[in-house]
Amino acid sequence: MLLLDTLVAHDEVSATCSVVVREGAMFVRDGRVGATVFIEYMAQCAAAFMGLRGTSRGEPVRVGYLLGAREVTLHVDGAAVGDVLAVRAELTFDDGAMAAFAGEVRDASGALLAAAELQVWSGGAA
């Protein structure tokens, strides 16, 4: 399942992606996507970061799993078809297999729509 559209930027500790909410996209119902889906957007952005970092180090692609989300704050109930969302994931902890990210979703004006701390595992070869 790929929900994000574009990798916008990345550096040594973070990635920023974008997604346009589209009619017919997974999880879009009655012209809206619920804010709980923002957690998956953040997780996919974290996965993009991990994949880019791994390939830049010459490592094989690894399977990753979202283990949990803490400190989840949803400032809105969702987003409408046509909305362009910026999704960011910043690495805050990494021990090689377990990692944590500070994630956020913002709208086109820069307003914070959601934030969470994500815990992921990325230990197995794909």
Structural description of this entry:
The chain is of the alpha+beta class. The protein has one domain (6-125): Thiol Ester Dehydrase, Chain A. Helices cover 16% and strands 53% of the residues. It contains one helix and nine strands. It has a six-stranded antiparallel sheet, with helices on one face. A hairpin with a 5-residue loop joins strand 8 and strand 9. The relative contact order is 0.25.
**Residue fraction in strands:** over 45%
Give the CA-based shape. globular
CATH class: Alpha Beta
**How many β-strand runs?**
9
> How is the largest sheet built, in terms of strand order?
1-2-7-8-9-5
CATH fold category name = Thiol Ester Dehydrase, Chain A
Number of helices in the DSSP assignment: 1
Distance between the termini: 15 Å
Architecture (CATH level 2) name: Roll
Q: What string gives the helices and strands in order? A: EEEEHEEEEE
Q: Low-confidence spans: pLDDT under 50, at least 5 residues?
A: none
Task: Provide the helix percentage.
Answer: 10-25%
Total individual domains:
1
The biggest beta sheet, please? Answer: 6 strands, antiparallel
Gyration radius, rounded = 14 Å
Q: What's the CATH H-level homologous superfamily?
A: Hotdog Thioesterase
* Alpha-beta classification: alpha+beta
Could you report the average pLDDT, rounded to the nearest whole number? 94
Summarize the helices and strands and which ones pair or pack.
Blueprint: E1 6-10, E2 14-20, E3 28-29, E4 32-34, H1 37-56, E5 62-74, E6 78-80, E7 84-94, E8 98-106, E9 112-125
Antiparallel strand pairs: 1-2, 2-7, 3-4, 4-6, 5-9, 7-8, 8-9
